[in-house]
Amino acid sequence: MRALSRRPALAVWCVIAIAYGLIFAASQNKIIFTDEVVFAQDFGFAALGNWAAVRIPHPPLYVSLGAALVGAFGNSLTAMRAIGGASFLLTLALIPMTMRALFAERAERAALIAMGIWGLQPLALQGSLLIDIDNTI
């Protein structure tokens, strides 16, 4: 705990990550619709190596990551939504580094404010829970 008290950005990241984990877990029974259905099917096709059946013409990173997760953890919504969850938490972790590069003197305060905004922003939260490249990567 002493390490967290000397690093408030790390403590804020931990709190937001735990809260996000609860939101992520609560959203697993949320119905998928529109592009999410097609992406979910594309993940399955790509996991089986059937890239010709992939229908949404996006750069292959997103579908490749989704296919890897489906291959490793099965054809579940949790595996498919993990890309968005990881992207949300990675963005949250990169905020303090960006603030240190931009604001040398007040980096810690700027990082805490920016992390709070990102962690509470409804569009970021909801978008990261969608199975859709437009909101996750």
List keywords for this structure.
137 residues
Description:
Helix content is 74%, strand content 0%. The chain has 137 residues and is mostly helical. The model has no long low-confidence stretch (mean pLDDT 88).
Chart the SSEs and their pairings.
Blueprint: H1 2-6, H2 8-26, H3 35-47, H4 60-73, H5 77-102, H6 107-120, H7 122-128, H8 133-136
Structure described in brief:
With 137 residues, this protein is an all-alpha fold.
Number of DSSP-assigned strands: 0
| N- and C-termini, Cα separation | 32 Å
Order of SSEs: HHHHHHHH
How much is the average pLDDT?
88
What is the structural class?
A: mainly alpha
Main sheet summary: none
Discrete helix count: 8
The percentage of residues in β strands lies in under 5%
Q: If you compute it from the alpha carbons, what radius of gyration comes out, rounded to the nearest whole angstrom?
A: 17 Å
Low-confidence stretches: none
Estimate the global geometry from the Cα principal axes: elongated
Helix content: over 70%
